[in-house]
Amino acid sequence: MKFEGADSPKIVTVSTVLLLGSIAGLIIWALQTAYAVN
What we know:
Blueprint lengths: L8 H29 L1
């Protein structure tokens, strides 16, 4: 997957933050759902 300007550090940083943020959000949501079920 090649994006326009994908090699610029700012784009890499932003995409990394978004990726980690979405993963963290999924983990938190899954934990809350698991605790709510129990």
